[in-house]
Amino acid sequence: MQIEPCRPKWKGTMTDRERFVNQMHYKPVDRCFNMEFGYWNENFSVWPIFVENRITSNGQADVFFNFDRIRTIGGRVWMHPPFEQKVVEETEDKKIIMNGDGLLAEVPKDGHDTIPHYVKATIVTPEDWKRCKAERFRRDDPARVLDVEKLKRQHPPDRDYPLGVGCGSMIGRIRNMLTFEGLAYACFDYPDMVEDMVETACVLVEDFLDQVLPHFDFDYASGWEDICFKNGPIVSLDFFNQIVVPRYERIGRKLHAAGIDIWYTDCDGDVRPLLPGFLKSGINCLFPYEVNSCVHPAELLEEYGRDLRIMGGIDKLEMRKGREAIRVYLDSVAPLVERGGYIPFCDHRCPPDVKPDDYLYYLDLKERMFGM
Which stretches of 8-117 are DSSP H helices? Predict the structure, then answer.
């Protein structure tokens, strides 16, 4: 479906690529890079502006709102094939499903967005992992080989948008497979198994990077973890620093050898205890930076100086309060945009209880404050 933008693109004198690269390196820009991380699935069914214009996905919304373009090349760096997703049991208001990670999950039958209640994991013991690894984590799986020539045609050297390379997950997806509680027990009961899982995740990312790094001039690297909540990391710092950080460092060496010096990871919650390990390994940007589980982005950017960048950090709870709260919050991040190394957008996906008209006000105010 052809998406017709509902608003003009912000005016500018630089390409989206030039703007992103300069902003993340504290160099002069024509204006702020304009992006958002997206919306809850419910927004597409309850916000009139989406329903009336048949916008049903975050990708379509990016085009609809005419945001600056940003793209990432990723590989098959995790389980393949995934477990078959299927409904195992149904009650009057809930379904028990098997998801792609092999978890039995309880989800509401009406389909509203919520974190599933996980009932049981398929991978629990070293024997489970050994079998799963042999079946679903093969390095020689033909599906892990990319069509590099096709990707080069899709992302030519003279592109006008920033292009990133995906660096997967060293522990977040393992948490997904084992569950939060399962990972906590496994770190004590089966530490060798968990380390082998981390090593396997790292090797698959390294194999992917070896395929693409020689062929593209990437502008950044990205990753995903989600291993923190409001009280900090869900794994011990000893485990993180001794097992996870060395794998980040291996990936970081490959990235730096290819000239990539901006690397963000998507991790919710209070990430402050992990920051020294992130920075040591080369992860120097936080995304989408949840404020309520941590602190205002200004505090961390002041503490770490130019060693750290942040993308996100606009408090969604303040956006729920209406226009005055939105204005006050954008005022509070204006010095960070001016400083560089910071791109403002809603901290995680914008929830449906932000009023659509207030969201449009937010987009308009961002342009007035941070546009040309």
Answer: 16-24, 43-46, 48-52, 58-64
